[in-house]
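agent> call fold_tool(seq_1)
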Amino acid sequence: MNDAQLLRYSRHILLDDIGVEGQERLLAARALVIGAGGLGSPVALYLGTAGVGRLVVVDHDTVDLTNLQRQIAHDLSRVGVPKALSAMQSVRAINPEVDVVPVLQRVDAAALDPLVRDADVVLDCCDNFATRHAVNAACVAHRKPLVAGAAIGFDGQVSVYDTRDAAAPCYACVFPPESTFEEVRCATMGVFAPLVGIVGTVQAAEALKLLAGVGRSLAGRLQMLDARTMEWHEIRVQRQPNCPVCAARRG
């Protein structure tokens, strides 16, 4: 690190758990962020401020006026601009050293494969089950840790799915792809504005811990938040030996 970086990241470097070596790991790291909306906004901003070397931000959508109630990476001047480009501009305004790569498309399994392969950590900030399962499958295939969050109404959840650990579940172990869920969207159900910030910030923290080698991740633990009472509940989640996604690859 040069003198400017030592100053910029000094508050991380002062932490014994991170120090110079941990910060250097962050500077060399590559993170893939799927979604640049409510969750992806704080994720991208905090990873950028922390100095993660390369951020690939994937989103096919454009900024809408209704997004500005909660999607803090965007502002009124960027209505109509692709969200991935808007997030890139916001991160670069804070930390121009970060290499932000916007991907302006809805990703499928084929598109995800090289993106996940080249990442050190993947953050699922999307809003639909099909994409979540596609992201999980790619993370299992390439043995990359996945930090997944979700938020709707006043309810949020976050966990880490890290199949590098033989005992840890993947996303499909907890939310089987063959199960039927009633998919709800912010456009119809609404979402409490700070909720996405809380969940997205936890996702960013988990990703930074994984990249810097700090503490214990949320692997095997699903955190659920009721923002009406601001109560967190944790449940232990286990690997399913017959999981259609991860069992064969770890067997």
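agent> call fold_tool(seq_2)
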Amino acid sequence: MLSNGGKISVIVPTHNRAHFLGKAIDSVLSQTYENFEIIIIDDNSKDNTTDLLESYNDKRIKYVKNNENRGCGRARNQGIELARGDYITFLDSDDELFSTKFEKQLEKFHLLPSAFGLIYCGFCYASGKTGKIVKYISPELYGDVYNNLLERNLFPIHAPIVKRECFQRCGMLDPTLPACEDWDIWIRIARYYEFAFVPDILAKYNIHGEQKSTEMESVIIARERIVEKYRSELNKRPSLLAKHLKEIASLYCLNNNPAEGRKYFIASIRSHPLNYHSYLHLGLSLFSTRVHHKIISNYSVLTIDKVKLTF
């Protein structure tokens, strides 16, 4: 068992999530690797979060309460600034970790050369109502994953452990993004560092419908901004740009705005005229919006307890 492979700073932003937060904290306190600190950034909660934190008697827990709601991205950056660990990891206040996560990821770090800056793990989706695990996602990509991340996000924010130096070199999370800020920082880190993984399922993503990742309008805005942030790279990859534009179009259609969706389908076709999927979607959105909505829901979205997880 790894006894001292460096200190891990666990950053937990929260806002009115006391009903979830206890499980998240307990999942960290149950880690077999014990050299960590938990930094709770309370983004001006109005519930009993303070009372909950006062019930814990563990010096590794640091509690900071903001006097205004600054948003999740800023709260995470605040945690990074306060962190004293050699490694940084994030945990949303409604998710959980399995007990050997830190130990296995740090053991992996100590087997790798300095070029590796991030190690992620497998994760699972679970029902927030029943706790039942409904889907497992195993990691696959290793080494230089920059192009893969330009295409899609590979893991949720609590799957990786990241060397602290990565944030010093690549910058902090972008607080202007209403969602997908983790995807954005992974792309930036992947420009300079290689990624590795532990194959085990070590993180649980609880789905209950209160996450930003399920707020369609926030996801749409974030996806649009991600495309604009990396437009110069995507312009060199017209088929990939077309894919992103098609997905944004589908999100608009899912959000009952097919007119705006059609604009993006047309932009996708212009970017890559051989992308026949965009033609098909454009036609369906014109002639049968109801059927089109159903097709996107059935084949492009994971639904858990009637909550839609978008691509």
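agent> summarizing second result for user.
The longest helix spans residues 238-254. The longest strand covers residues 194-207.
agent> awaiting next instruction.
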